[in-house]
Amino acid sequence: MKINLKSLNRQPASASRRIAMNTGILYAKTGITMFVSLYATRLILKSLGASDFGVFATVGAAIATLGFFGTVLASATQRFMSYAEGQGDREAQKGIFNVSVILHFIIALMVGVALLIFGQFIFDGRLNIDPERISAAKAVYHFTIASTLLTIMTVPYEAVLNAHENMLYYAIVGIFEALLKLVAAIIVVYTLADKLIVYGAFMAGISFSVMCIMRIYCHRNYDECVFKPRIYFNKKIMKQMTSFAGWNFLGNISQMILNIGQVYVINIFFGTVINAAQGVAGQINGYLSVFSGSMMKALSPVIAKSEGAGNRNLMIQATMMGCKISFLLFSFFAIPALLEMPYILNIWLGVENVPVYAVIFCQFALLRTLLEQLYGAVNTSIAAHGNIKKYEIVSSIFCYFPLIASILLFRSGYPPHFLYLTYIGYTVIAAGITFFFAWYNYGFPALTFLKNTVLRCLCTFIITFLTTTVLIVSFDSSIYRLLMVFATGMVTFALTSWFIGLDKDEKKLTIQFLTPVFSKVFQKKNKTCFR
Hints:
Low-confidence stretches: 1-13
Number of domains: 1
Shape: globular
Radius of gyration: 23 Å
Distance between the termini: 50 Å
Helix content: over 70%
Oligomer: single chain
Strand content: under 5%
């Protein structure tokens, strides 16, 4: 399938320019928050030590619950809000907002009760934690529950910002949140109280602050943010959203069990020190994923709005291009990081603070996420179409494969990093399932996608990886080699992406993105020269 530039240009507000502008805003936010977060993590790890940091990663696995229980209705809210925005139906948006607030309140209560019950179970001698740190671990767990509930209640407001593509305010809030976490890390370093408990309390307080500023802004700036359930509560919307969220819940609960399960499996077989390596791998992977995730966050409302407006062609085009750009953006930073991971962790955490297995965990986690980029936008398009029942059932069945496989491997004496190998295998299976249901639901051109996207992306990755590997073999580890690897990798990647990764139409679209930017830059320079 060819990218039809005319169909893109016919969009009311120029979809391509909106995506480029919002992605740029999110990149600026990413750069700032990443720098702040990396330094904050260094302070926290050094202050807490590997064992307490591992305790936080283990007990804080409930934070993963935050992500997955929150997204149960987050994806439903964002999908329906963006869909209604594409239709131009303001009354429907008010109904969706009111239903969403009520559903998220109910979910928050259910999650709170469930986590309290779950806490009684996991602290009854089932976790491999130093008995002297059990009380601190329990306190952190309860702070995590509070953070979870507050974040769930923030979801409807994030969905409104997403539907309006207001990435500027979203970026401002993200930077503010990162700065608060840095302040918390600095306080933890110098506090005389129990550092682990103090850190957990600050995380809950930050979640409360974010929720408040989101609510205030949305109620003041968007007409649909009016909570009057007696007027705007709609039973039909309630039924549609709960049905969508119900099937989405099946997939999310499976992912939640998978992500929490891997933490506890590692803890039971290997202890909290290896959990610390997991925590580091998760943060490195998360920081790099933000670059491709920023573009997807800007693209997701366009996919849903296109489907809502009845423009299936644009929805498919945006999906295919989203997968390719996500992979390329993630590869741009991931390839140098994969090769120089030992040196990067030594600089970031300090040689004496790098947990055992952290390097190989980080490398395998990046490879898995790299593969996920090839079908992430396809998953979004299935949700935009709305028919997710069969897809969620099949995906949920296969979701438990890596957890079961890793338990069997560990019982047979295999080392911890085999957990990530099972996850990579599962990712390949998940990609096949996603492509099949996209084709089955709305006729996604899978073969064209494999040829134009997957093969081009893999060729770009392999050529760049092999080129930069030559430097790793030829020079000793140092800051100079690190700089050479990043510079060579980025230049090689840019060239291979242009000549191999992008087809002719995508090159034209890239030029469309960049031309306004360069025009403004040169105009400013010319004005300065003639003054």
